[in-house]
Specification:
Elements (H helix, E strand, L loop, with lengths): L3 H8 L4 H29 L1 H7 L2 H12 L3 H10 L10 H10 L9 H29 L2 H24 L16 H7 L1 H19 L2 H11 L4 H29 L1 H18 L6 H15 L2 H12 L5 H28 L5 H20 L17
């Protein structure tokens, strides 16, 4: 969907600015779902929420299928739990992050978060493969409609899978999560990290996968088939890098891996519009992706490591919500910049802000550089 959405909207006559508004609706919807997660857990319980949340995907896909204008597309994006990156987002990210630490030992936490994200990227790769196949062999209008219906169907399948998940009894404590504002008050370092994650997400909102696909579509005339092929490679490299992220974090600590993998990737992001050719731009994107996603599982593991169990849903909601808020503002800005023909500006602004974020995280966490480091004997610092 992150690849299909902007191309689908463009095929329906939407301008760059209108596409930006709809993608902003996706980020807004994910924000609202993220913020509501702790309250919904207290109201209906963890198990019920896990099995009903995917139904929003089914509804969103159908609404996109039947919509015919910007306002209707915006509503569909608002409710549809669509991801506009190649990673998980919204309420699913909050729920999964809160549960994962209690399903493994502290010594294996980094590996579990890496595996969680790696499987997600593998799924995104399959989605990219479907985009490629439909783009290559199916008439575009019909293919787009079928892919939207497949997205709706995946929400129904996911609901069934979650409903059959066996949740250990000790996770019942998560049915009484700390309220969001209380988490912010009790954990100042989580609050500061959340603000910094917001800066990173704002910068990332300028160059979301949806916008990257639209940029290659506009500048180098990549069709859906070519986009699918490119982002299959993107997701494969991302998945491979996640395995390295856990091993490096175990050895050097979560913060060091977050910063020193993310910083060079941002330099490559900044250079993409100056590549001068489709091959050069694609190569820089692939190189950037090989490094940039090491920040994802290490960031998640860091927050869940420093938060108390009852604070984990709130901490996940807080850090996810700040990212979604920032994406709400970042994505439409890209649409406006492209509408004004400032085609390189999103890459330059995004790369610069992300680099500043890396240095700020290093400064904030300078006294906690060994968090997540696993000793040879098996103990965790």
């Amino acid at each position: 969907m992150s690849l299909l959405l902007p191309v689908y909207l463009a095929s329906r006559g939407q301008s760059s600015l209108e596409i930006g508004i709809v993608i902003g609706g996706v980020a807004t919807g994910n924000l609202l779902w993220s913020l509501s997660a702790p309250r919904l857990i207290r109201a209906i319980g963890l198990r019920t929420l896990l099995s009903t949340a995917p139904l929003t995907m089914a509804a969103g896909g159908l609404l996109l299928f039947y919509s015919s204008g910007t306002a209707e597309y915006f509503i569909a994006a608002l409710v549809g739990s669509v991801s506009i990156t190649q990673t998980e987002s919204g309420i699913f990210l909050v729920l999964d992050n809160a549960i994962l630490p209690d399903l493994t030992s502290p010594e294996r936490r980094n590996e579990v978060f890496s595996l969680y994200n790696m499987v997600g990227y593998a799924g995104s790769g399959v989605g990219g493969l479907l985009d490629y196949l439909f783009g290559a062999f199916v008439p575009s209008g019909f293919g787009y409609d079928v892919l939207l219906l497949l997205y709706s169907a995946s929400g129904l399948v996911l609901s069934v899978i979650y409903s059959r998940l066996e949740i250990p009894e000790h996770l019942g404590a998560l049915n009484r999560p700390t309220r969001l504002l209380e988490v912010a008050r009790r954990s100042p370092i989580v609050s500061k990290l959340a603000l910094l994650f917001g800066v990173d997400a704002f910068a990332g909102g300028l160059t979301l996968q949806s916008w990257l696909s639209y940029w290659f579509f506009t500048v180098y005339h990549f069709d859906l088939s070519a986009l699918g092929a490119l982002f299959i490679g993107v997701n494969i490299l991302s998945a491979l890098s996640l395995l390295a992220a856990a091993k490096l974090a175990n050895r050097y600590g979560l913060v060091r891996v977050m910063v020193f993998s993310h910083l060079p990737s941002n330099m490559m992001l900044l250079a993409i519009p100056f590549a001068g050719s489709a091959l050069g731009a694609a190569g820089l994107l692939l190189g950037r992706q090989l490094l940039s996603q090491m920040d994802v599982p290490t960031r998640q593991s860091l927050v869940m490591t420093i938060a108390a169990r009852e604070d984990r849903p709130g901490a996940a909601a807080l850090t996810t919500a700040t990212r979604n808020i920032s994406q709400v503002t970042g994505s439409p800005l890209t649409g406006l910049l492209l509408q004004l023909s400032f085609i390189s500006a999103p890459f330059i602004i995004s790369g610069s802000l992300k680099s500043a974020y890396d240095l700020a995280v290093l400064a904030l966490m300078r006294g906690h550089l060994s968090v997540g480091k696993v000793e040879a004997a098996g103990s965790s610092k």
